[in-house]
Amino acid sequence: SQQGEEDPQALSIQEGENATMNCSYKTSINNLQWYRQNSGRGLVHLILIRSNEREKHSGRLRVTLDTSKKSSSLLITASRAADTASYFCATDHTGANSKLTFGKGITLSVRP
Amino acid sequence: GAGVSQTPSNKVTEKGKYVELRCDPISGHTALYWYRQSLGQGPEFLIYFQGTGAADDSGLPNDRFFAVRPEGSVSTLKIQRTERGDSAVYLCASSLSAGNNEQFFGPGTRLTVL
Fold first, then answer.
1. Is a pLDDT exceeding 80 seen at residue B67?
2. Which of A9, A53, B77, B101 has a CA 20 to 30 Å removed from the CA of B70?
3. CA distances from A26 to A65, B30, B43 (A)
C-alpha cells in the first residue's frame, strides 16, 4: 500500500516561478527521499533528508521536513522548462528494512 | 561511474510465458531493491537483497514471482506463467548498504504481457 501522499496532484507554472510540492506520510520514518521521473522510466534521485534534519538544499532545490506534522515539502526555485516531470516522495519507514514507500507523484509542467 | 543498468529495456511476451529481467547495480552497492510501477502510480516495493540473501520479499505479489542474486551483485527477477496484470515497468535500485542511504534507480524494464 502507498502511504505517502503528495499534493497537488498536478502543478502548472510559468518558467521562472517557484514550484512547491508537498508530501505527507503516516508512520515514523528514518528518512524521506525526493525523486524526479521523466517519461515514466527511471527515477532520478534529488535529495535525501533524514528524520533528525529539518532542511536541506541542493542547487535550486530546497527540502523541508516536519516530523511532528509528518510532512515534507520540495521547493524548486526559478523553475525551467526542463524541470517538467513527475516528482515523487518516498519514505523509508522505521522497521521497514529500508524499502521505500512512494506516493502517486506530482506532475509538474513548466511553461516556457 | 556507471549507474544501475537493466536489461532488456522492453519485453513483450505472451500470457503464460516465462520471463527474466536483469539488474546490474552500482559497483560496490550491497543492497539491491526491485520495485514495480503501473501507469499513473508510484513504484511499489517487491523484494530487497542485502548481499546474496533476500532480506525482505514481502512485496512479491504471489509465488509466480522469484528473484535471485547469487553472487551479491547482478540480480534476476523471474516471472512464471505471466498474466496480463503483470504488465508494468519493473525498476531496480541499489544503495551503498541498507539503512538510511540513497537508493539509485535504473531505467527500468517495460514488460508487456499480451
1. yes
2. B101
3. 14, 29, 18
